[in-house]
């Protein structure tokens, strides 16, 4: 059962972002939400950017989850906090991957799982 509606799945944007996330994971790096916006040719700030980037990252992470892999969007972080945004944790809860309160610990473990997978 899908918790994220499909807007980008299978599109050129989906594939470009997906490939960039895998590349970053293979290099054991993190990337910023603004980087994803640039790939999608969106403004790098604002509500529209946040909504669309969150949408595509949610679709990618749900796809990964359905394949038994960790949430690939764990490598996408905010510049101000150095951690993923609230949408990452909301999706993890919706997918029953995270029920606790320690977001930072969950994220660090998920990030290491992503690195180990890719």
Could you give the topology of this structure?
Layout: H1 12-26, E1 31-32, H2 33-39, H3 47-66, E2 76-77, H4 86-94, H5 103-117
Parallel strand pairs: 1-2
Structural class: mainly alpha
When the domains are counted, the total is: 1
Helix fraction by DSSP (H/I, runs of at least 4): 55-70%
Largest sheet: 2 strands, parallel
Written overview of the protein:
The protein is mostly helical. The protein has a single domain, classed as Arc Repressor Mutant, subunit A (Orthogonal Bundle). Helix content is 56%, strand content 3%. It is built from five helices and two strands, in the order H-E-H-H-E-H-H. The protein has a two-stranded parallel ribbon. Helix 2 packs across helix 3. The chain is globular. The mean pLDDT is 96.
Structural descriptors:
single chain; 118 residues; Arc Repressor Mutant, subunit A; two-stranded parallel ribbon; 3% strand
Q: In a few lines, what is going on in this structure?
A:
The protein is mostly helical.
């Amino acid at each position: 059962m899908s918790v994220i509606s499909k807007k980008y799945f299978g599109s050129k944007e989906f594939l470009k972002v997906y490939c960039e996330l895998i590349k970053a994971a293979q290099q054991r790096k993190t990337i910023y939400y603004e980087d994803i916006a640039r790939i999608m040719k969106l403004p790098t700030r604002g509500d529209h950017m946040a909504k669309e980037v969150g949408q595509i990252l949610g679709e990618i992470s749900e796809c990964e989850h359905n394949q038994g892999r960790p949430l690939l969007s764990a490598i996408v972080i905010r510049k101000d906090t150095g951690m993923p945004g609230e949408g990452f944790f909301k999706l993890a809860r919706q997918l029953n991957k995270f029920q606790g309160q320690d977001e930072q610990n969950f994220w660090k473990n998920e990030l290491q799982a992503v690195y180990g997978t890719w």
